[in-house]
Amino acid sequence: MNRRLLNIMKKIISILTGKDRAELDREQVDKAGDILSSIGEGVIEGKPGANIMGTIQAESGIGQAVRSLILPIERMGIPYELSNIINASRQDDKTFAKFTGGNPYCFNLVHLNADAVRHNVEQKGFAYFKKRFNIGFWVWELDRFPEEWEESYRFFKEIWTPSRFCVETFTRHSSVPLFRVPHSVEINIEREYDRGHFKLPEGVFIFFFMFDFYSVIERKNPIALVESFKAAFGSSKDVMLLLKCTNSEKNPDARDELIKAAKGANVVQMDRYLDRDELYSLIKATDAYVSMHRSEGFGLTLAESMYLGKPVIATAYSGNTDFMDVNNSFPLRYKLVELERDYGPYKKGNHWAEADRDHAAETMRLVYEDRALGERIGREASDYIKRTLNEKVVGESINDRLSFLAGKYSMGEWPFK
Question: Buried b / exposed e across 141-177, counting CB within 10 Å, b at 16+?
Fold first, then answer.
């Protein structure tokens, strides 16, 4: 049945039953979820390979995360088809440009967080998920998963997630198996830009942090970073804190609060999108990366900065602890605090980390004053990320898992090694 005819039928049924179309959509998705969750062994069809759905062209963390899943799959020679989902971020990443929307392969990898699943099942249609082994790729930043999203489990036979922190969170609620697949990190800069391109001064030590206002700013916690920087360096012009952000117009109150907090210190805000070469060049052009986040599902910008040899100072809590320790970075002390109100999807009564601001200031001073130490830690960081999060290592983990599932669910021989 084509979508136009289905919509006409929904309109007629709506008139006859008194139910609005949104309610009918929910009923249809509920039914689809029930069917999908009851798929048994031996009914999976499709050729060996993966159909990957996600925000593939989005210039955002979640966009880079799905690209970091596709690249190791490609590296292993596993065939794939792509379905691009449009979200609110700018859609100019050109890493992948061929989107068929099809699903000829036996595995569906749906790289969308739990809150986006229902809507995209509605948009994509039940047929896309039928007779496929459906895997969701989710990330969540708190230690408790929202109850209202738990229904999304039933659309999948397995959930993949990038960190042990996320595995522990989902384990408390999941009715399906969980498998950890870290984001792969490999950076190739085709055209490198120097400080002059970004109008940044030479001879100044630059601490760097980047974030998106679409991410809840209280979780990213840039104001604490600004205050710690001011405590460490006052109004000195020999050192700078560079805040690279996007979408500040979506939260003007938070933007204005950040600008106010930065007054009196050498804090520069760069508020615009950059392409990948520019972004990685900017990281290389700075001297250290600092994040006083309250929680991260993984911490991709931290791993990318480490890959590029930067000393990284960050809260020693949540997903980034998978790849950060005292040998390759500067972890910050913290205490867990209870959320006293809702912050977007992060609800009152949950917990996240509050980094020690004095420790952050002391550590920034240390990295600024002991350049040799920072450079040594940066080298250790780069070596660690390149050894453990490269596309080959991540790709082999993915391939091994898909091969195991193909055998377990009688999908035939998995031909990729």
Answer: bbbebeeebeebbbbbbbbbbbbebbbebbeeebebe
Verify that 144 and 230 share a domain, yes or no.
no
pLDDT tens digits, 223-259: 999 999 999 999 999 999 999 999 899 899 999 999 9
What is the domain extent for residue 60?
A: 39-184+392-408
Q: Give the C-alpha distances (Å, rounded to integers) separating 279 from 185, 225, 271, 283, 348.
A: 14, 20, 12, 6, 35
DSSP labels for 328-387? TSEEEPEEEEE-SS-BTTB-TT-EEEEE-HHHHHHHHHHHHH-HHHHHHHHHHHHHHHHH
340 and 227 assigned to the same domain: yes
pLDDT at 13 over 90: no
pLDDT tens string 35-47: 455 443 448 999 9
| pTM above threshold 0.85 | yes
Q: What is the chain's mean pLDDT, rounded?
A: 91
Residues 371 and 397 in one domain: no
CB contact at 8 A, 96 and 57: yes
